[in-house]
Amino acid sequence: MISAEDAIRKPLPTPDADTAIFWRGLHDGRLLLQHCTDCGHVQYYQQATCRACGRDNLVHRAASGRGKVHSFSVVHRAPGPAFKADVPYAVLLVELEEGPRMISTFTGGAPDEVTFDMDVVLTLQTINEEITLPRFRKA
Ligand SMILES: [Zn+2]
Question: Three-state SS for 81?
Fold first, then answer.
């Protein structure tokens, strides 16, 4: 069972061997995507091998930070006490300019401003020394 103290704390990502470089990139202001030098596939999130061809010749390159809202949902009921002050908020499925889609949240405006295909741009929210979260605002 989760303690009352933990329930009011937002869960944070835990960087591991595959994702540490991604989190370091966000800390340094860059959203890193993996590019396969064999087949050209671009992927998010980080993995040891290419999801298209299975090989491991992957390099990290910074994304432009531009994308479009592929889909979204507005959350009205907080999933837990830690998110109570945030509702309503929009969860986005952003299609990045480079191709991959990523789940994030909308910031810098009311959730009812979000529309399908809306142009969005990356904005970074520093949580602590290790974690910076990628979020998106209207372009
Ligand atoms: Zn590949």
Answer: helix
pLDDT at 1: 64
> How many angstroms separate the alpha carbon of residue 19 from the centre of ligand 1?
18
- 7 pLDDT more than 80: no
Q: What does the block give as tokens for 16?
A: 């591991």
- How far apart are the CA of 58 and the centre of ligand 1, in A? 8
Please state, in angstroms and as integers, the Cα–Cα distance from residue 87 to each residue in 27, 73, 111, 135, following that order. 26, 12, 9, 16
Distances from the Cα of 139 to the Cα of 101, 104, 121, 124, angstroms:
17, 15, 5, 14
pTM to 2 decimals? 0.91
DSSP characters over 27-69: HTT--EEEEETTT--EESS--SS-TTT----EEEEE--SEEEE
Asked whether residue 138 carries a pLDDT value surpassing 90, the answer given is: yes
Q: Are strands 66-75 and 58-62 parallel, antiparallel or unpaired?
A: unpaired
Two structure tokens written together for 108: 């810098």
Q: What's the gap in Å between 35 CA and the centre of ligand 1?
A: 8
